Amino acid sequence: MKIDEIFNVYQENIMPTYNKVPLIFVKGKGSKLWDIRGKLYLDFFPGWGAGNVGHCHPKVMQGVRDQIGKLIFVPNNYYHPFQAKLAKELIYQSFPGKVFFCNSGAEANEAAIKLARKFGALTNRFEIITFTNAFHGRTLATLAATGQKKYQQGFEPLPEGFCQVKFNDLAAVKAAINSKTVGIMLELIQGEGGINVADKDFVLALRKICDEKKLLLMIDEVQTGIGRTGKMFAYQHYGVIPDLITLAKSLGGGLPIGTLIVKKELGDTLSFGMHASTFGGGVVICRAALGVFKAIEQEKLLKNSQKMGEYILAKLQLWSKTFPIIKEIRGLGLMLGIELSIAGKPIVEKCLARGLLINCTHENVLRLMPALNISKNEIDKALSILEQVLKECGV
Ligand SMILES: *Cc1c(COP(=O)(O)O)cnc(C)c1O
Fold first, then answer.
1. Do 249 and 28 contact (CB within 8 A), yes or no?
2. 163 C-alpha to center of ligand 1: Å?
3. Which residues share a beta bridge with 163?
4. Cα(283) to centroid of ligand 1, in Å?
5. Which of 376, 232, 226, 223 lies closest to 310 in space, CA to CA?
6. 283 with 71: CB under 8 angstroms?
7. Sequential DSSP letters for 12-52
8. Element at 244 (helix H, strand E)
9. What are the tens digits of pLDDT across the range 263-291?
10. Domain count, the chain
11. N or C terminus of the chain with fewer C-beta within 10 Å?
């Protein structure tokens, strides 16, 4: 297909649900991407959060290639060694318990919500407290959990049983808890909401309240998971063990997977026939996910994520002193946000024109989430482009 024809097909035949950039990528390797014309880009936002090991990581590709030559699909009423291996790895990396496999972040959160409801059914509790500027997905229940009007408008009525309170506001949480409350669900760093980091005291207090009132502490690690913040999971920075976490995005190394991990006591809450997903934890994707863990371990990517995160953060903090348009720098590891006093979109576009892909979330927060194997060289290159663009936009 010719380039114009491709754009035309999208116009005519694909629903316009995405705000699209007129770019056609055809090849990727690490943090490099090539478009159809052969132009090279440096990707500081790989896969919208799904690219923690970069594009086409050899360890991911190797497992996938090997599996595709043998068997692509095994229905979930049978066993498979690689699904077992991935489950074991996920539990090893998190806490003793059980996993449920699905295909996306929304589905993982949907499974978490269903599990919480089942858990609460015994005591007639179903309400889940979530937070302002949260993002938990686009299915009806996760949309209700997300609680942002701009995503919800026109899709009412949404499932009941969710209540939103201010992020990092313990008094608001306490005031919202009632006899129907069964859980508290949050991202430890709100990704779509503007890179807002949960306070440590706040999270410790949530754990305490959940213990006292027998509520589930439900952590959405869809964006923060798999090394993004410098530890395998963001909750590991906080000194708490959640009752459950949800994962997706980068777990599949670029292929779709979602996972709900629950602590041991909750492991049999959803039993035979209560939940399912035809493609959940497919064998090809399990191979890809095992490749992701292998890459993280063998290439010491948690350490690199910490180190490179600190390297970028130090530079950004210097900038915040010299650029009046920078209001605040936030984040952890390689999940970083630059809050601006102006709209971020023109900056993203200018970076793109110079071959750098970044993102803007929540209107005015530039979001940098490079692959965990990003090099210092690549960072220097990206930051020099961004610095130049900020200079041009700041006057
Ligand atoms: C992206 C995201 C989701 C939704 O994941 P999908 O795979 O797009 O359904 C849920 N929670 C968080 C924190 C996310 O960043």
1. no
2. 19
3. 129
4. 22
5. 376
6. yes
7. HHS---S---S--EEEEEBTEEEETT--EEEESSGGGGT-T
8. strand 244-247
9. 999 999 999 999 999 999 999 999 999 99
10. 2
11. C
Both tokens of 111, joined, read 């499974």
How remote is the CA of residue 70 from the centroid of ligand 1, in Å? 31
- Dist. CA 234–CA 320, nearest whole Å: 25
- 111 contacts 260 by C-beta, under 8 angstroms: yes
Q: Report the atom number in ligand 1 closest to the C-alpha of 220.
A: 13
Choosing from 52, 130, 223 the residue with most ligand 1 atoms within 8 A of its CB, the one to mutate for a pocket test is 223
Please tell me the distance from the alpha carbon of residue 116 to that of residue 118, in angstroms, as a whole number: 5
Q: Using an 8 Å Cβ cutoff, are 259 and 102 in contact?
A: yes
Residue 274's CATH number: 3.40.640.10
Residue 147 pLDDT: 85
171-196 pLDDT, tens per residue?
A: 999 999 999 999 999 999 999 999 99
Q: What is the DSSP letter of 198?
A: P
The C-alpha atoms of residue 224 and residue 191 are separated, in whole angstroms, by 8
pLDDT at 395: 59
In the chain, DSSP finds a helix count (H) and a strand count (E) of 12, 17
Domain boundary among 279, 298, 317: 298
From CA 141, how far away is CA 287, in angstroms rounded? 30
Q: How far is CA 146 from CA 4, 154, 361, in A?
A: 37, 15, 15
Query: In this predicted structure, what is the pLDDT of residue 148?
Result: 85
pLDDT given at position 394: 72
CA 5–ligand 1 middle distance (angstroms): 31
DSSP β-bridge partners for residue 338: 329, 366
Does 248 contact ligand 1 (Cβ within 6 A)? Answer: yes
Both 16 and 85 in a single domain? no
Of 28, 106, 61, 11, give the one whose Cα is nearest residue 252.
Answer: 61
